[in-house]
Each structure stands twice: as structure tokens, then as C-alpha cells.
Amino acid sequence: MEIHSIGYHHYHDKDFVIDRPDGIGQSWLFLVFKTRTIVRQNGVDTVVLPDSCIIYSGDEPEYYKADDETYVDDWFHFTVEELDIQLFRELALPINKVIYLGDAYEISSIIRTMTFEHYSSNIYSADVVELNMKILFFRLARLIHSDIRLL
Fold first, then answer.
1. What is the pLDDT of residues 73-127, one digit of tens each?
2. Long-range pairs for 147-150 at CB < 8 Å and ≥24 separation?
3. Rounded CA gap, 30 and 77, in Å?
4. Residues 19-58: pLDDT tens digits?
5. What is the rounded CA–CA span in Å between residue 90 and residue 87?
6. Which residue of 31, 41, 108, 150 lies most exposed, with the fewest beta carbons within 10 A?
7. How far apart are CA 89 and CA 53, in angstroms?
8. Which are the contacts of 71, defined by CB distance < 8 A and separation ≥ 6?
9. Burial of 72 from C-beta contacts in 10 A (0-12 / 13-18 / 19+)
10. What is the C-alpha to C-alpha distance for residues 2 and 131, in angstroms, rounded to an integer?
11. Kindly report the CA angle at 151 between 58 and 146, in degrees rounded to 5?
């Protein structure tokens, strides 16, 4: 896995909309919703609560927008290889489904660390980011398998 771009606690106004009907191609997207958000999947709009997340595969249509005065999220675009997809299967991580976490503090904290590391010029930054990304997915699996519900 390799990160291409990342953001922590990004604020947008009430007019914020992402509409990618063909997905984003080779990259995948991990997204943590920090505010109420409208997510469209299969033509159906659903209000998503804060502290929810989704892993979008590159070929999945993406549509999400602010449902309040502001929209806030943590996110990263990343590439995956077959071994990474195999890891997601082994961890039983839902792909292209909204996951309500209840408390996204731990996941957001890891994204914060990854963001600072990604934009630094420190030695081994890419390695540190990749290791943190794997930790994030293991922790996400732990949360999911401790009775977290899918929307």
C-alpha cells in the first residue's frame, strides 16, 4: 500500500460535494466522516453519522456531501496490490460500505500521525506511513469485529 494524498480534519463549507461516478481509478479512498454526511450508493442517499468510515475501491462510484453547515473528514488516497486486498479479506474489512464506528478517535489519531509523516521530509517517512496504515486497518478490523454495525 502506498499513500498518494492524505488529509486530517479537513473543513469544508455546506456546499461541499464529491461526485465521482466512475470512482477514482487506480487509487482507493479511506474516509472518516467527522460530521453528518449524505452518502449516495446505488442511487440511494443515506445520512451518515459522524464517526463513520468507508473504504472505497477505485472502481466504486463516490458521491458524498455536507449535510450541515460544515463538512469535516479525515481521508487518504492509496494504491493497493493483490496482497493488500488479500489482507482486507483476511481482516473481513467491508469494502464500499459505510461502517459506523461509534468513536473514531483512535482511527483519526493514526491518520493524524500519517498526515504529518507523509508531508515531512524525514528519513523513512514512507515506511512509517505504510506501517501506520497497516496498524489502522488492523485496529479498524478490531473495532468492526467487536460488534460494530454496518449501515
1. 999 999 999 999 999 999 999 999 999 998 899 999 999 999 999 999 899 999 9
2. 148/99, 148/100, 148/101, 148/102, 149/100, 150/94, 150/97, 150/98, 150/99, 150/100
3. 7
4. 999 998 889 999 999 999 999 999 999 999 999 999 999 9
5. 5
6. 150
7. 17
8. 11, 12, 13, 14, 16, 35, 37, 65
9. middle
10. 10
11. 100
Helices (H), the chain: 82-90, 105-118, 125-144
SS3 string, 118-135, reads: HCCCCCCHHHHHHHHHHH
What's the mean pLDDT when you consider all of the chain? 92
Q: Which residue has the cell 499513500?
A: 3
Beta bridge partners of 74: 32
Give me 118's grid cell: 507523509
The Cα–Cα gap between 39 and 96 comes to: 11
Residue with cell 493488500: 84
Q: Over range 14-20, report the average pLDDT.
A: 94
